[in-house]
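Field log, afternoon session.

UNIT: design team B
ACTIVITY: writing a sequence onto a fixed backbone
BACKBONE:
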């Protein structure tokens, strides 16, 4: 049982080390797309920031920006 846990731990470490981080070009493209969508729902005040950090369960992604107001839409049913 102890050997299996050790092997599983090693395998998880190998898989974690093998996962490629988001490169800067991809991060900038994602930021551009997220900003375009955010502008549909908010009046943005300045540039947005995108952070991508690895945590124990995968990635933590945070899009952050200031807005002067949220846009509201009326449903036409």
């Amino acid at each position: 049982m102890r050997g299996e846990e050790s092997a599983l731990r090693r395998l998880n470490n190998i898989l974690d080390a093998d996962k490629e981080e988001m490169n800067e070009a991809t991060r900038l493209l994602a930021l551009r797309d997220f900003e375009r969508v955010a502008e549909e729902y908010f009046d943005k005040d300045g540039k947005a920031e995108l952070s991508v950090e690895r945590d124990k369960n995968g990635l933590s992604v945070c899009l952050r920006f200031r807005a002067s107001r949220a846009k509201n839409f009326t449903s036409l049913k």
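LOG NOTE: The longest strand covers residues 49-55.
NEXT ACTIVITY: expression trials, pending approval
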